[in-house]
Specification:
Elements (H helix, E strand, L loop, with lengths): L5 E9 L6 H4 L19 H4 L22 E4 L11 H9 L3 E4 L4 H9 L3 E4 L2 H13 L4 E5 L4 E3 L5 E3 L4 H9 L3 H6 L2 H9 L9
Length: about 200
C-alpha cells in the first residue's frame, strides 16, 4: 500500500447525499478477478449515457476538472453494499482522498485498509469547499494526514479526526498483510519452537 502523508490536488465536487457503492462502481463491473482496472468504470451510470457516450452534464466529464485528485461528496457517502471495489475504483480513477460530512462505516473502513483516505469534516465546511470547486478556477486543496488538517488558499483550515492506528498504517503504507509481515521473525520463531505433537492438530 502506498504511503499517504500529504497531498495537494485539484478538487471536484459531487455534493450529493447518500451516494451508494452501486453508483461508485456498478455491479456489472464486479466480475473481474483482478484488483485493478476499475477506475474507468467509476460513476459509470452518471458519466455515460445509455449509448455509451459521455454525459456532458456530469462534472467529471468537464475538462476543467481533468486530473482532479480530491473528491468532495455529500453526507453518507459510500452507503449500500459493502463492496471493496468502491475505494479501488476511486483510487484507480486518480483520487487520493474523499472529503464528506459522513461516510458509511464499511466503506470508511474499506478505504483506510486500501490506502484511500476518507476525511470527515463539518457539513458547512464541505459545502463551502464544494462551492469553491464550482466557482474558483483550478481550485486545489491540501489534505495533510500528518497534521490532520484540510486547507486551501482561500481561508479553509479545518482539523479532522482519524483513528490513530489507521493513521499510522496509512502514513507508513501498511496494509493488513504488511502489518503481519512486520512480525515475521516472531512468527518464524514461534513456528520453530512449536511442539511436534501440535504439527497435525
Amino acid at each position: 500500500m502506498k504511503k499517504f502523508t500529504k497531498h495537494t490536488g485539484r478538487a471536484v465536487a459531487v455534493f450529493t447525499p447518500n451516494i451508494d457503492t452501486d453508483q461508485i462502481i456498478p455491479k456489472q463491473f464486479l466480475k473481474r478477478i483482478e484488483r485493478t482496472g476499475y477506475g474507468e468504470f467509476l460513476f459509470w451510470d452518471w458519466r455515460y449515457k445509455t449509448d455509451g457516450t459521455p454525459a456532458p452534464d456530469f462534472v467529471l466529464n468537464d475538462p476543467k476538472y481533468a486530473g482532479a485528485s480530491v473528491l468532495v461528496a455529500g453526507p453518507n457517502f459510500g452507503c449500500g453494499s459493502s463492496r471493496e471495489h468502491a475505494p479501488w475504483a476511486l483510487g484507480q480513477y486518480g483520487f487520493c482522498a474523499v472529503i464528506a460530512p459522513s461516510f458509511a462505516d464499511i466503506f470508511y473502513n474499506n478505504s483506510l485498509k486500501n490506502g484511500f483516505l476518507p476525511v470527515r469534516l463539518p457539513e458547512e465546511t464541505v459545502a463551502a469547499i464544494a462551492e469553491r470547486c464550482a466557482t474558483v478556477p483550478d481550485y486545489t486543496i491540501t489534505v495533510d494526514l500528518e497534521a490532520r488538517t484540510v486547507t486551501d488558499d482561500h481561508g479553509i483550515s479545518e482539523p479532522f479526526a482519524i483513528d490513530e492506528f489507521r493513521r499510522y498504517c496509512m502514513l507508513n503504507g501498511l496494509d493488513d498483510i504488511a502489518l503481519t509481515l512486520n512480525d515475521a521473525d516472531a512468527i518464524s520463531t514461534f513456528e520453530r519452537n512449536r511442539p511436534a505433537w501440535l504439527e497435525n492438530s
